[in-house]
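Here is the promised in-class demo. Please do not try to memorize the tokens; focus on the logic of going from shape to residues.
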């Protein structure tokens, strides 16, 4: 005995509707993924721009204000054709004090990304930005009996000699460890305010 099973045919319009639905679903998933991916990369790029702009300062940055103090001796004597005149000597001991402001040119700082959340910050040479409140006083002065034959020591000129490039360069170099630490702290605080997850590596000019 043979049984005949009647199979109902799916209408063409139903197949078209199902096909259209599948296309919309797949397209929606792809579009959603694209939007999410775009938002991710967009946010990453925006953060990178914010970090770089926060560090690119145009003005000078004072990192350390330091007091300088010391003693500078000076002496003069008169002579006639190379022969020193006895008791014609003049000598004094000058005490000096002044404040220095040391830092960097903000425009000389560069920053480049080294990863998704890491950057390399290059710091330029440290410079003297200014001096303030200079104070000079004569601690001791001694003049020989015939010192009237010797010109008086110019205290102002002596004070100016204390501010030569060599003296100031030595002062800045002595502050280098403190300056480097202050630079790290200064720029890390700026970037952390934008994104605490960012890591900075520093390179200093020598």
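The designed amino acids, position by position:
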């Amino acid at each position: 005995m043979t049984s005949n099973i009647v199979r109902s045919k799916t209408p063409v319009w139903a197949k078209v509707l199902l096909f259209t639905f599948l296309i919309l679903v797949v397209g929606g998933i792809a579009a959603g993924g694209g939007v999410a991916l775009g938002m991710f990369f967009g946010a990453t790029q925006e953060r990178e721009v914010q970090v770089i702009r926060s560090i690119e300062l145009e003005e000078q940055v004072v990192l350390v204000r330091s007091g300088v103090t010391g003693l500078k001796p000076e002496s003069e004597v008169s002579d006639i054709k190379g022969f020193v005149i006895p008791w014609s000597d003049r000598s004094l001991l000058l005490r000096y004090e002044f404040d220095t402001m040391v830092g960097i040119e903000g425009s000389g700082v560069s920053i480049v990304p080294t990863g998704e959340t890491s950057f390399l910050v290059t710091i330029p040479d440290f410079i003297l930005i200014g001096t303030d409140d200079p104070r000079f006083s004569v601690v001791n002065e001694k003049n020989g009996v015939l010192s009237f034959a010797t010109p008086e020591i110019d205290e102002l000129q002596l004070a100016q000699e204390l501010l030569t490039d060599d003296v100031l360069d030595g002062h800045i170099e002595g502050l280098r460890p403190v300056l480097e630490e202050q630079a790290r702290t200064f720029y890390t605080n700026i970037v952390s305010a934008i994104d605490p997850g960012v890591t900075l590596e520093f390179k200093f000019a020598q």
